[in-house]
Structure formats: C-alpha cells, structure tokens
Amino acid sequence: MRAFLAVKINSNIQTELARVQKELQKQIKTAVWVKPANTHLTLAFFENISESQIKFIQKASQSVCPCYSPFDLHLGSLNAFPHLEKAQILYLALAGESKKIAKLTQRLRQNLDRYHLPFDHQPFVPHLTLGRLKRPLNLTRLQIVTRPLVLPVIHLELLESRLSSSSPIYHTLIVFFLHQRI
Predict the structure, then answer these.
(1) Which pTM does this prediction carry?
(2) Is 116 left (phi over 0), alpha (psi -120 to 50) or beta?
(3) Is 150 within 8 Å of 73 (Cβ atoms)?
(4) Number of domains composing the chain
(5) CATH for 108
(6) Integer Cα distance of 174 and 166 in angstroms
(7) Is residue 53 situated within a structural domain?
(8) Does residue 94 lie within any of the structural domains?
(9) Which of 80, 97, 108, 176 would bridge 61 by S-S if both were Cys, CB 3.0 to 4.6 A apart?
(10) Is 98 domain-assigned?
(11) pLDDT 10s digits, 87-106
(12) Integer distance in angstroms from the first to the last C-alpha of the chain?
C-alpha cells in the first residue's frame, strides 16, 4: 500500500490555499492543482509497504512524537521544485518553527531506517504542494501574497493513499500525538 506520515492542515489553511491557487490559475494554464482538502505536510512517504510493516512505522513514530511539544508553523512564500527558474512543482513554504519540524522529521526518519522501512529519502523541505506543472516554467517574476496563517502541529498521522482517476483518496490509519503538557 501507498502511505505517508504527515501533518494534516486545518480548514483556514485549506481556504487560503484555494485562494492562492485561484490567483495562480489566472497566470498558469498548464498545471494540475492539488485539492486543498488533500494538502498535507509530508514527513515520510512509503511507496509500497505491507500491512505487517505498519506496526514498525507505529513503533518508530511512538518513540519520537512524545519527545516533542506541540508547535506552530506559518504559511510562507511561494516557491518551486527544483527552483523558480524551471518550476515543475509549485508550493508554499512553511516558516515558523521550521527547525523543530526538520529535527522531528530527521529523528523520525532515523527510526524508520532502524526498522529498515522503505521510504522516500528525498531531503525534507517543509512545504504544502499547490500544483504540478505539465512542463517546466520560469516563474521568478510571479508574486503571490499569502495571509500569515498558523499551522498548529499537535500530532502526525499515518495516512493510506489510494490512487483514483480524479485524485488520491486518503484514509487515516493511526494518529501519533506530540507530548501534551498538562
């Protein structure tokens, strides 16, 4: 099965992503846009895992998440992979406590490696994908202003991803809470 560990976004951020996408669609005609309801911050992507491997993802996550208190990320600027000069994937960067999410992701991935779990080892860049371009474009002059919204990180979710003809369908398998102060 396809799955990933992620931070899901709230409805305020979904609304802002829809607004940003609407602005971008006026200027970019050759893109496939991600549905705001499907947008998330991916920490680890598993292309093909078995049911039996889920328990190891659970163990790896449960040993890391309680070590971190909840924190906030903020919507940042528009950017692209591999870069704005040859944009293929448009995204909004995430700012705020980005060092904290990077450290959490690093520790999580180290634990996943200990269990020999097959995940995508792409370098972690905290972002929310807006769309994928059908061909690379130079978007260095493109400017979009986002509202300074907060993405609270209070838990991670292991999501199953089922591909369909229109868009992926996500189903939450397990929720891993960060350390909650009482």
Answers:
(1) 0.93
(2) left
(3) yes
(4) 1
(5) 3.90.1140.10
(6) 25
(7) yes
(8) yes
(9) 176
(10) yes
(11) 999 999 999 999 999 999 99
(12) 37
Would you say residue 182 has pLDDT above 70?
no
Residue 67 per-residue DSSP state: G
C-beta separation of 3 from 42 below 8 A: no
Angle in degrees, 0-180, between the axes of helices 98-114 and 54-64, rounded to the nearest 10: 140
The span from the CA of 149 to the CA of 46, in Å, is 29
| Burial class of residue 9 in the structure, from the number of CB atoms within 10 Å of its CB (0-12 exposed, 13-18 middle, 19+ buried) | buried
Q: What is the three-class DSSP state of 6? A: strand
b/e sequence 41-58, b meaning 16+ C-beta within 10 Å: bbbbebeebeeebbebbe
For 133, the token pair is 């371009």
Encode pLDDT of 53-75 as tens digits.
Answer: 999 999 999 999 999 999 999 99
5: CB partners within 8 A, 6+ apart: 42, 43, 44, 57, 61, 108, 156, 157, 158, 159, 176
Q: Which amino acid is at 23?
A: E
**Residue 75 belongs to a domain:** yes
Q: Give the three-class secondary structure for 28.
A: coil
Residue 180 scores a pLDDT above 70:
no
Domain that holds residue 23: 2-177
Neighbouring C-alpha atoms within 13 Å toward the C-beta of 147: 12
